[in-house]
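Cont'd.
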Amino acid sequence: MSNATEVTRGEVCAVAVAEAFRGDGEILASFFGTVPAVGGRLARLTFAPDLLMTDGIATAVETTPPVSGKPSEEPVFGAWLPFRTIFDVVWSGKRHVVMVASQIDCHGNHNFACIGPFEKPKAQLLGMRGAPGNTINHRTSYWIPNHSDKVFVEKVDVVSGVGYDRAAELGERTARFHDIRRVVSNLGVFDFETPDHSMRLISVHPGVSVEEVVENTGFKLVIDGETPESRTPSDEELRLIREVIDPEGFLNREVTG
Amino acid sequence: MDKRTSEREVIAELRDGMTIGIGGWGSRRKPMSLVREILRSDLRDLTIVSYGGPDVGLLCAAGKVAKLIYGFVSLDSIPLEPHFRKARQQASFRAAELDEGMLQWGLLAAAHRLPFLPTRAGLGSDVMKINPELARVKSPYEDGEELVAMPALELDVALIHMNRADALGNGQFLGPDPYFDDLFCLAAKRRFMSCERIIPTEDFQKEGSIHTVKINRMMIDGVIEARGGAHFTECPPDYGRDEAFQKEYAATAKDPAAWQTFWSTYLALDCEADYQEAVRRR
């Protein structure tokens, strides 16, 4: 199992999402998509044990129920977290959300609301949902299973999640909780740790070239020297993903390779 | 006071152009029998405020909506509400899309009879652009922070659905989440609650803990007993979502003929009882 060639792209992506939660402490980890659901659980079962998760309905779950397959233990429920409490958590900042993106630009402006002009969209998508409030109140990461220049774009059609350029315009005080930690795609991992907070490639997944990332990105990425490969799961992490968290390998349906 | 009434009497009270808040969330515990009565009526040009699900999709498909104030519209198991999407893509109503927390804040401001409540949510996003009437407010204290002044969402009418209620207008949710139904009621001039069963007041605590009686009778003007009234949205523990029916409903967005059939089979009926019968027969 330690043979890296056997590790799937989905598993590498899950590790990258897990890494986004490193050091978060006792906050609510929320995620959309299968790979983030696996990655969040992996973080909690290894280096981020204090993360709080919900059952996806209205209750915190103190066990770590699997994403697929038969649970090996009865879930243990903790606190009641109806939507009203979730909103309180969002606005008080004790949360790190991984959201999906239909479009994202070099400053981390995010769109999953609609494609085309807002007044008469070509495609109505999710709407604003909680993205404006999330991004201005607490840590946010993004998961993009289909990296292409249709998603990584020069300019998003509608801004649902706030990017670094817009946060800067609000001034330091208003934007003090704005923090886009990571962007994880099926090709690589990105952050905004650059002088002007434009998106930087920090690693490419095994089997992916830097050129492939650049070709599929609709804006100029910051690339510092040699780009390392994304971290692959340790034997123990691989065991947790395959035997405990996602025995049926749902994450390999969301991203292939 | 006995507040028992019917869908027909409630909807007969409504007028064109009114602002109507609808409780529940997505495809969960929606007052669908009241929505269906609106579909049967001549009402039009409505402003709808909702954590939207099929209530919004159906009202859009029937051409009832002039303006929609919302954070999302979803069927949960079907993430994008197809009838709402279609109406949006045809620009058939004015879309006031907000962050979902801002919606709560607008209802709370109205409930507390405040002109607005400040929030950080919305700043820097296009919520500010697509809702040009949204103003900012500066903290009068030392920090001087700039915030959004989320205006009160004052409702003419609130419609909610509960698991249990009594004839006085006390209401009980037995599922996992009260959503924001109490705020919808507090934000509205007239408040109507449908429920799965009207029970004697003394029976509430046989059904659930005291904490589940979230709606008090000062918040309610009329109570309607509507078994299956949330169909096809979920109403646990009484029933789950009717996923097969929801799929059938969603599929009709692609095909005008299918929508016509759906409309005549389930909606262009005389009353809620006929709807429930049509659902049983299928």
